User: Fold this.
Amino acid sequence: QSALTQPASVSGSPGQSITVSCTGTGSDVGGYIYVSWYQQHPGKAPKLILYDVGHRPSGVSSRFSGSKSANTASLTISGLQAEDEADYYCSSYTSSSAFYVFGTGTTVTVL
Amino acid sequence: EVQLVQSGAEVKKPGESLKISCKGSGYSFPSYSIGWVRQMPGKGLEWMGIIYPRDSDTRYSPSLRGQVTISADKSTSTAYLQWSSLKASDTAIYFCARAPIIIFRGPISSFDFWGQGTQVTVSS
Assistant:
């Protein structure tokens, strides 16, 4: 099972919206709602920001939203802020023997 | 308050054994699964495996099966990750994380709480 594919980096100016893609297959992203997104600041543990494609845990800003179309999931950050600069990882349940898989990770830079 | 507290950093030599821990508090430990995630230096997240503390059933990533052992002790609300013979390539930060159980032994929805990470360094 290969990792889900994400762009290595995405950047935007404060206040702009950016989108991070996450491409898998019909055995993972395309086949289930169990897609989640994590934010990781340098030297810190990952933090769950979206689960089941587009649901936000309590306390997570509404500036984070998620969607899915076929085998690609997307994370959109609207009203980009300096504190959003971090690494972002998607993940999904997979029906393959791997059971669970993370994306390759995307570094979001606020210009 | 839900917390996962991991054991401290370790420095080991190749061939040595190691067991690191992850203690849960603030919730019913048997009612959630615990996963382990590896992050090698400068790299991304890699799922290693998961345990259901209710009956200690485990699932492993095929690439790591046989390389590590995941276990749990319900009585102390603690999960463990262990190696019998470390290699230099095991050098990484290891995170434990809690996963709500949607269907017992079924799909993982997400990891909603994470431990702070344990740095493991293997060097001669």
